[in-house]
Fold these 2 entries.
Entry 1:
Amino acid sequence: MEYGLDLEYSFSEFLKGFGLSSEIAHIIWLPLPMLLVLVAAVVGVLVTVWLERKISAAAQQRIGPEYAGALGVLQPIADGLKLLVKEDIIPAKADGILFTAGPILVLVPVILSWLIVPFGQNLLVSNVGIGIFLWIALSSIQPIGLLMSGYASNNKYSLLGGLRAAAQSISYEIPLALSVLAIVLMTNSLSTVDIVNQQSGAGILSWNIWRQPVGFIVFWICALAECERLPFDLPEAEEELVAGYQTEYAGMKFALFYLGSYINLILSALLVSILYLGGWGFPIPVELIAKFLNLPINAPFIQVFTASIGIVMTVLKAYLLVFIAILLRWTTPRVRIDQLLDLGWKFLLPISLANLLITAGLKLAFPQFFGG
Amino acid sequence: MSIAITTQFICFTVLSLVVIIGALGVVLLESIVYSAFLLGGVFMSVAGLYLLLNASFVAAAQVLVYVGAVNVLIIFAIMLVNKKEDLKPINDIKSRRVISTSICLTLLSLLIRVDLTNVWRLSSPKNSIGEESTIRIGEHLFSDYLLPFEVASVLLLMAMIGAIVLARRDVMSKDISTGLPVDQELIEKSSEPLLTNKN
């Protein structure tokens, strides 16, 4: 399956034309995909914030942002600018170093996890062998940031909020990892590219959602809980609590939390689409269409076309899931903390364990359907 | 020296410095919360060192287990019992410090001696397995390291049962730390549901 335009190769060939060595060309190339992914993440956040405002308005029969740009599309930028120029306050009795480090520790692992999100066969920052495991490991760092900011605020509500947020994200990490493990079992690989390729056989029919329906639901619930989205937004609970660990934060430090939670939402949606909805795959395999139309699959224009279809499909699937998440946020009531922990430990954990066992059994029984 | 080797050297130096300074901070800092957070930093840098050694699976497992589980648990414990209480001053603190320093220095000299006398078998980058290491680790865990692996899980199970016994004080009639009889009313109150059913 190793075909595709090699952008890095052509880029370094282009630079070598100017008389640079291949090593320097490689160093100039390295930051480009990273920057591109960073920009994509931030633009994704802006789009999601706009969607959130518009969909929530529609759910409540309002109009929503209207005057900032056409249909209010510039509203998220205005929000971001407002947060950027706000005064950066550190409370007098707060612990300055930890207070600053907390939001950073929340945001950085989320951004690092974009390393493994593939938008096409070769369209990802790095196809690391441990792939999806890297994301699970990185997302386990986040609770430390939450605890740190809760503690550093020197405020009882913040500390309790931080403890609650950390407890929530720890308890939902386990069923999340177990449902990922079932997918990995079927793929025989941790790499996200392999996971998508394993689903690409027969278009929409071979997507993992049909083989892992329980895993899909468990993963989606856990992903929502990890992102602290309603119905699981207990750490913040804007109508009832004092915003939990974010209470003392203002300006850009608050914006980091805000950015982190939205980037995490998009990342989770992208990962659901990669793990269960065939990633960049078109519902009908592109190779089949090309064969039907008698087009050569390796021709450059077909390559560009399939790559753009891949990107569009990944983003489309992810935003469909983001839409569902936003709709859930504005239509469901919040669960209580004891219900939340009960759901995580007493329901999702046994179910995901059973799902893993059944997947292993089915893999042994029907290796042609469940990965040999 | 090529750029790759230079980068590797810089990363190694930075990571080792963070490990050493962070570990010293964990031991020497007065504030226990800072120590706990620094411990997380030390674990992260050790994971970075594993990455430099081409052991990406071990690095990710290090982050998941030590940072994501062990360190979070330590911080949790510290924050839940972070009482501001004045500890009794210890009389012979100076002699204790001298003794512990000498023991630590002895251990350090032992380690240095092992490091200098042992002949290290350095594998060349050509025969390093890199990405294949995940599969290799799995094979080892299910063949020659099966017994230690399973015994470790039994150990964890024992620790878990112990923690449950300690946490559920209704198992014992006396408080373990103070020796006072346990207030059973409090336990009954805590096991009541938060909201009573109204039907």
Entry 2:
Amino acid sequence: MRKIQEKLQRSGISIGLIVTFLVIILMAIAVNIVKGVNFFSLNNLLNVVRNYSMIAIAAMGQTFVIISGGLDLSVSAVMASSNVVAATYMTSNGLIFPVLLLCLALAALVGMFNGYLVTKRNVPPFIGTLGTSIVINGLRMIWTNGMPRGAIPDGLKNVCTSNFLNMIPNLFMMFVFIAIWYWFLLARTGYGRRLYVVGNNPRVAILSGVRKDRIIITAYIISAVSAAFVGILIGGYTGIADNWAGKGYDLDSVAFAVLGGAVIGGGAGSIQGTILGGFILLMITNLALLASLPLESQLVIKGLIIVTALGITARKR
Amino acid sequence: MRRKTNWILVLIAMFLFVGGLAAAGGQDESDGGKAAPKEDNITVGFSCAGMGNSWRMFLKANFDAKVAEHPEISKVYFTNADERPEKQIADIDDLLSKGVDLLIIQPSLGEAIVPAVERAYNVGIPVIIFDGTVPTDQHTAYVGQDMKQLGAHYAEALINMMGTEGNIIMLSGIAGQMSVELRLEGAREVFAKYPDIQILDTQYTGWSIPKAKEVMESFLQTYPQIDGIWADSGLMSFPALETMKEAGRALVPSSGDNLNGYAKFLVANNVPGYIEPYSTQQAAWALEEGLKAVKGAELDKVIYHQPEQYPFERIKEIVNMDLSDWWWLGDDQIPEEFLPQID
């Protein structure tokens, strides 16, 4: 048992998270017995992972920022803006890839600006990214006059709503690819190691010769680029350009990461933790829907879980 | 000396008290909303709640087009509160200081702007409220649609399309919002007359497209047989139908408002649907009624308008498949110079 615990801890997943996961599996079985609705049916699981994939990509980006000791509240503003830019300029299937790159490049600039505010101007991350979010939303509303132009091209809709090998949602495949890449970056590269050092103790990081500002700015760029990518995926998934695409994803992405063991204040967190934390949250909200509870109950459940998780991590610190 | 001062203070207090009572009494008997009739050189103030979506843009376009039909209007002042009640209060005061003859208000948050609305009414000009209520009777008229009837119309149309038996799901906006609850109430009263119609589930999805898809996916898991979708907006029925299509389920009749994306989906997939707008004409209606009041007419306190209803055959006739999803069916009839730039 102790060996398993040590192994889990080394992998960045707490025993509490595993226990929570098992409790939710039991809840799913209970819903199955009481309501006769099978959470574990292939179709339902595919629905859950399809919905999960988009927000999980944003949450993994957010994880980098949280580990660095920050918080990115401009996630949904970036998502909505990339969604609207994509719909405007993806006028044909051939333009999907170039416009995607344009959106990611613009998002990288936003991330760079957030990082600049936090590192060079010493603006608290909460205030800095909230300010950026307000500015981006304002610029988008001026640009669109409140109405998104254009339309999502069929090619993007097909990619985002169809399945790989007629079974696994393409969105989930993209999530898996990005998750592996982010896990490698965080757990197996010098950048990842330095990010933890910066988040744990910025002063020690500077004394050790770590270029703190560059590390933090990169984290904000990763978060913004992830958010922009998700904004485009939301467009493909819903089939409609939306000025408020990704609304609420800021705090959801923080919730995924914190539930997965990331600590507000920095220095702790992992991609695998965020993935599992997020999956637990999505499972609960899906179960609430299957059990015919009102959608609003999701808010209560989410809120309670976030508060509990934050309480636990705060005690740890 | 001290005693004398006390007496003077008591007298001042009594004077203020009596004066206050007189002022309050005077306000009760004020001739609110009834200035001397005016036939021309009319200035109009329009305090808008916010402009953050396409519905609001088309609302303004319809309003501007209606203004152009009235040469007796000499000037229109338009303010945008950006969904902030405190700004709307300042906007209303600003419009009053400009001496408008008619004030049209789209409340951002009704409860919060009561004092400003009452101030405007007591100035003596007609005050017309639309698209949201303000809990005071100190306004000339509320102009809008009967929400309960709208919900009932959606339900009746759904029954016409699917028959008097079957399983339906209901998708609505924000729980507790009065207009949302009234639409649901109207619909439920209609469905209650048909014992073979079963309401499988009702969910509030906040008019969020991704939420509507998520909810519909779980409905498809939970309910193997869904025969109809009652929704109070195309923003709900459109993604719900799309989700059914993606899941390979047969598409079913539905209801919704006049979001062009919804109309386009119905026609492209040849699936029957019923559209009745939550009209973008409401500001224009408010202007029409307000002008009557300025010219001396007595208005009812609540004035309902019935916009055009679009059964499926009518939708097929008028839908413009080339226009954006964010247009509103029927609004391509607005003169071009007033249309918002969207495509």
